[in-house]
Amino acid sequence: MVVDEHCRITVVGERRQVDLAVPAGAPIASYVDTLARLCEQEEVDIMPSAWSLATATAEPFAPEWSLTELGIVDGQILYLRDMIADEFTEPVVHDVGERVAEAPQGPLDGRWNVHVRTIAVTVLGLGWLVATLIVAAGRHQVSPTALGAEALAAGLVLPALAWMAGEHAWPVPRSLRTTLALCAVPVLALAAQTLAAANWGERMDGPHASMTAGGLTTCALVIGALLGAFLAYAGAPGAATAAVLVAAAAAAVVGCALALTRADTVQSAAVVAVVAFGLLTIAPITVGRLVAFTGRRAEARTPAPESEDTDTVAAAVRSATVLLVLWSGGLCVVLAATLIELADSRSACAAAVAGCLGLALLLRAGAGRLVAEVVPVGLAGAIGLFVLLLVGSGHFGWPAYAGPLYAGVTAAVLMVYGLRRVVRRPELPPMRRPRWLTGVGTMLAGVSVALTAGTFGMAGWFLDIGRHI
Questions:
Q1: Cα radius of gyration (the chain)
Q2: pLDDT value, residue 129
Q3: How many CB atoms are closer than 10 A to CB 36?
Q4: Residues 191, 197, 202, CA angle at the centre, nearest 5°?
Q5: 123 lies in the same domain as 78
Q6: Number of other residues whose CB lies within 10 A of the CB of residue 401
Q7: If DSSP codes are grouped into helix, strand and coil, which group holds residue 1?
Q8: How far apart are CA 464 and CA 469, in angstroms?
């Protein structure tokens, strides 16, 4: 939009930036030298500059054109450009094959050679072993005692091989040793579950049993996984195996507690969701301490030369970044699954837990630094709220069409807001995260803890205590 036949623009030079109004219908050449002087552009007497204006990414405008003819509007930012700056630059010729060969290689650009082929065969064998045990257990093709014994033997041999490869300095990559050791986690979990079901499964059917059959399965799985994680860390000490050990310990505590309290599916989902959100909150601190602890242990075993200190720090930073992304992603998968279960349940407290944690996840997502860290957190919260709106209409007394209607309105609001921010003018200030959002997310997490207690029927118990005080 042009006002009073003048166009108000911002001209950016190498030293200064000027806001002014220029004749909209006059050729750029009639006033561009004045703009250059205002911006204090350097002039060379031997070869004077031929100034023109341009946008940030386009070529310079032809000087004989006006801003009106070029479609420039009020408030636009233009840059001074010398049209003959590169007039005497020699042409540069590049060979396409050489440029392709010199391009930096990413993780997917590795060559398929004998070494990689050997590692791939080994990993395929590990996956084949784990899949064979799981499928055999699911199809009941082998007796539980024999299958449990085979899984137990495999779970003990795999971390022992990883330990021997490290102690005897076999030419086995560290990643392969870690994979070899970590395969003990699902194998020993399967062994524990199979042996527990074969020896104590029938005792869980009575009304006086300490836990249900499902609780016994859960308890056996998490204890077996904890044993496998401990052996994996002993066989291949590192940040990855330490993180799996911490996760297995948390799963063992929560799983055994839920099994002993005979919690149902909704109650278990609420507890797991709250614990997963708590672990997600302390994920940066946990990952940092794990990497520092394993780094000190590795340095104590094999001290690195002083010349490699920089490489060691860089490797630790990369390890912490990858571990943080994987840790957050795994917790977000757990949160998304539990929030779906809570939102689809018939319990008002469970639906409220899903709503609180979904909002808390969205508020927490904006506090992240890495895209790979923020996206899973925001996606988990969005999934929980999405399911709550679509299938949880009965919790709020809404008609059947209200959930899809509100979900569609929410989508439209998010799209309009996002597009508005995308097409905003460059001179607008960037978005800043208000500090109070973190406090609101913490408050919602605290409310979800109280609502989780409500899924166990403790709300009435607390009310009765309050009446008798």
A1: 32
A2: 93
A3: 18
A4: 165
A5: no
A6: 9
A7: coil
A8: 9
Short-list 83, 53, 57, CA closest to 67: 53
Query: How many residues would you count in the chain?
Result: 469
**3-state helix vs strand vs coil in the chain, percent to 5:** 65, 5, 25
Residues 127 and 253 in one domain: yes
**Side chain identity at residue 237, one-letter code:** P
Provide the whole-model pTM: 0.71
**Confidence category of residue 1, pLDDT binned at 50, 70, 90:** very low
Same domain membership, residue 150 and residue 45: no
- Which residue type does 282 have? I
Q: Is 20 helix (H, G, I), strand (E, B) or coil?
A: strand
Q: Note the pLDDT of residue 303.
A: 58
pLDDT at 274: 94
Q: Give the per-residue pLDDT at 426.
A: 47
Strands 17-23 and 6-12: antiparallel
Confidence check: pLDDT of 390 > 70: yes
pLDDT at 232: 94
Same domain, 75 and 160: no
Question: Angle 128-129-135 (CA atoms, 0-180°, nearest 5)?
Answer: 85
Spatial neighbors of 176 by CB under 8 A, at least 6 apart, are 119, 122, 123
**How many of the other CB atoms lie within 10 Å of CB of 377?**
26
Residue ending a domain, choose from 262, 295, 319: 262
**Sheet with strand 51-54: strands edge to edge:** 17-23, 6-12, 77-82, 51-54
| Residue 4, phi-psi category: left (phi > 0), alpha (psi -120 to 50), beta (remainder) | left
